[in-house]
Each structure stands twice: as C-alpha cells, then as structure tokens.
Amino acid sequence: MPPALPDGETPPDDGALPLSSARGAVDRDLGVYLHVPFCRVRCGYCDFNTYTNAELGGGASASSYASTALREIELAGRVLADPALTDAGLPSRPVSTVFVGGGTPTMLPVADLATMLGTVRDTWGLAPGAEVTTEANPDSVDAAALDALAAAGFTRVSFGMQSAVPSVLRTLDRTHDPERLPDVVRWAREAGLEVSVDLIYGTPGESLDDWRTSLDAAVALEADHVSAYALVVEPGTKMGAQVRRGELPLPDDDDAANKYELADEVLSRAGFRWYEVSNFARRDPSDEPGRPPRHASRHNLSYWRDQDWWGIGPGAHSHVGDTRWWNVKHPRTYAFRLEQGLSPAAGREILDGPTRELERVMLGVRLADGLELEPGTGRVPERLRGAVADLLREGLVEFGPARQGRVQLTLRGRLLADAVVRALTD
C-alpha cells in the first residue's frame, strides 16, 4: 500500500499559486515529472503510488491515461502563465528536464508517451539540450520501441535492473530475465539514447558475492549512469509483511554499509564518479572540476538543488519557489477531478525560510560538490564551527573544502550522511 499523503492546507480548485512562489524564479530552472502509475505486477518491496491495470478502469485505465494527463499539463500551463504571477516575477521558461517515471511508463504505447512529451513541448517549449528521460523495465521495451522513443525526443532511458542474480530478483518479485539487459542496453545505445541502470542492495538473502556479481554486470553494460540504492523495507508492502512474520530477515545496516563501500570501489575503478550519495556517472573528458559530470541525471539534480518542477499524475508532487503541493493519489479520483475542470491537487504547504534552509542542508550535503554553509561568503558560520570541527575529527567531511566554508562528505561521511545533517541542523 502506497504511503499516505502528507497533511497540508487545501489548495484552490483552479490550481492557482501564491504570488510568493514567483520570488527568485528567474534563477531557477523548470522541470516536469510525468507519473505513469501502472505496473504489470507490483514488486513486493515497492510502496510507490502504482497499480496494476486490472485494478482500474474508465478514465483511470492505461488506455485512457495519456488524455487524462494532458489535461493537467494544460492546467499547469495556464497556472504558470497567470498574469499575476508573471507580474510578480515568474518568467516564461522552457523546460530543462522531463522525467517520465512510475510505475512502468513503457507499459503505455510509445505514441502515448510521445503525445505527453509533445504537449509539454507545446506548452512551455524545451530548452536547448533538454534532458528527457523515461524509466523502463528490461522486459517492457524492444529495439523498435527504443527507436520510437528517441524519435519522439527522448534522450535518456533508465532501466530497472535491480540485480543480476535470479534468486535476488525473485525475492524482490522482479519478473525480467537479467540476461536481457545487455540486449536492451545495446538497443538503447543504437537508438542514440543515454543509459542509466538502477540497482538495489541489501535484499534479504543477498550475499556480498551476489552484490559484486550485480555490480560487475552493471559495469559490463557500459552504461552512462548507475544508481545504487539501499533496500528500505516499508510498512504496508508485501515484503514488510514477510519481514514482520519472520519469513524474511530485516536488512542489516552493517551489511548495507559493506555493500555501499563495495559499490564505490567497483564503480570508481570502472571509471564512474559519485556525484550524489546513491548516484554514479561515467567520467567523460568534458567533465569540469567542481561541476557535476556530464552523464549525471540533471532532472534529479534539480530536486537536490531546489529548482522548480511540476509533477503530473496521481500522487505526484510539485514544487515552485516556496510552494509545494501534491495530487490526489488514486487514478480514478485524479481523472474525475480533471474531467470536472478542477486541479487534482490534494494539499499544499508554503515553506518558510527556516524550512527551506533545512531542506537546502539536507539535500545539498548529499552532493559531491558539497554544501556551502553560508552561500557566497566562503566562511563557516560561527554557530556551526563546533559542529564542523567535530565532523572533521570524526572523518565525515573533507578538510580542504571545510576551510572554505563548504561541507563535502568523505566515503565514511556518505555512509553517515544523516548524522552529518543532524550535526549541521540541531
């Protein structure tokens, strides 16, 4: 069962944003997230807002979903073009990144994905060199589909690999054949798409050798980008129930730390560079020191760097300036509200200065280029000098950057990133 939506104030039915959301927008990029909430089967560990098509019908079905999502894109276009907002400083901006996630977006026909992307392009335009990504399961695409995605304007595909070990995939309820990965990656490259693969470590029963096998397989694919996430067993999931009943062991923190260190070792040796705690990009000759690597996910960087994005789809979250909101979760309710000409937003919050600063620290600490403690000054604020000294003494942050007022995590610091955040915010 997907997690409950957060509490918040009731948003207006027309989706209008407060004028304060326009403040500083000239310095922020605009991204679009398109949520496709359909999967062929639900994985046992997943708590995302996803559904099998058999659970749905009417305007919420996969066959009608694209036309429903178009209504929200059109609503978003009207909201962001509101003259009151533009007078308050919200510029007309082309979209810098588009990310189609889920669920399994490629359960929809490529023509539907192309239509949604085309409507984003018609509504805002795409910035030169815009990054356009779709997630895909290895068994949900073939060479023709990948060619069609590239022809529609997609530039990148992110494959849900998770593991190369069949027993681990079975525990995760993943249905794809790991031997298919080299084929789909090759087809994607032949189509001209950049390739990312997602891995999960810490699955109950996964040995360190199993994890090494998955890492070696990911490296052999010669992908541009690898994400490596520790498994989190969420309440309300099938796996959560299995752990609660004692059928599966709870993932172990020490085991997860060992596997993260192995990921860093294997991927670094293979020419990847970490740019966010869980994300590694293949090094490129064009990479600039102090800048994210060329093959980094620019859409995900926009989240970590407090840019603006509009999330389309049931349960999707959006963020413009100081305003965050989230849509109703169920596809039927989502479709019904849009059919009635209403915003699908279920709640929103206006973030105050201290909350935005807390989030800047929480997200910025995770990036390889680090967090400026007092932006633009090159100093460590007086109130944080003791905390930074403690972090240096514990080997969690790099010494040189800290002298310039910037926190950059060591490998040990990446394993204890939450502790670093607490030290800087308590």
Automatic annotation (TrEMBL):
<keyword id="KW-0408">Iron</keyword>
<keyword id="KW-0004">4Fe-4S</keyword>
<comment type="function">
    <text>Probably acts as a heme chaperone, transferring heme to an unknown acceptor. Binds one molecule of heme per monomer, possibly covalently. Binds 1 [4Fe-4S] cluster. The cluster is coordinated with 3 cysteines and an exchangeable S-adenosyl-L-methionine.</text>
</comment>
<protein>
    <recommendedName>
        <fullName>Heme chaperone HemW</fullName>
    </recommendedName>
</protein>
<dbReference type="GO" id="GO:0005737">
    <property type="term" value="C:cytoplasm"/>
</dbReference>
<feature type="region of interest" description="Disordered">
    <location>
        <begin position="1"/>
        <end position="20"/>
    </location>
</feature>
<comment type="similarity">
    <text>Belongs to the anaerobic coproporphyrinogen-III oxidase family. HemW subfamily.</text>
</comment>
<dbReference type="InterPro" id="IPR034505">
    <property type="entry name" value="Coproporphyrinogen-III_oxidase"/>
</dbReference>
<dbReference type="GO" id="GO:0051539">
    <property type="term" value="F:4 iron, 4 sulfur cluster binding"/>
</dbReference>
<keyword id="KW-0949">S-adenosyl-L-methionine</keyword>
<dbReference type="InterPro" id="IPR007197">
    <property type="entry name" value="rSAM"/>
</dbReference>
<dbReference type="InterPro" id="IPR006638">
    <property type="entry name" value="Elp3/MiaA/NifB-like_rSAM"/>
</dbReference>
<dbReference type="GO" id="GO:0046872">
    <property type="term" value="F:metal ion binding"/>
</dbReference>
<dbReference type="InterPro" id="IPR013785">
    <property type="entry name" value="Aldolase_TIM"/>
</dbReference>
<feature type="domain" description="Radical SAM core">
    <location>
        <begin position="24"/>
        <end position="273"/>
    </location>
</feature>
<dbReference type="GO" id="GO:0004109">
    <property type="term" value="F:coproporphyrinogen oxidase activity"/>
</dbReference>
<keyword id="KW-0143">Chaperone</keyword>
<dbReference type="Pfam" id="PF04055">
    <property type="entry name" value="Radical_SAM"/>
</dbReference>
<keyword id="KW-0349">Heme</keyword>
<keyword id="KW-0479">Metal-binding</keyword>
<keyword id="KW-0411">Iron-sulfur</keyword>
<dbReference type="GO" id="GO:0006779">
    <property type="term" value="P:porphyrin-containing compound biosynthetic process"/>
</dbReference>
<dbReference type="InterPro" id="IPR004559">
    <property type="entry name" value="HemW-like"/>
</dbReference>
<dbReference type="InterPro" id="IPR058240">
    <property type="entry name" value="rSAM_sf"/>
</dbReference>
<keyword id="KW-0963">Cytoplasm</keyword>
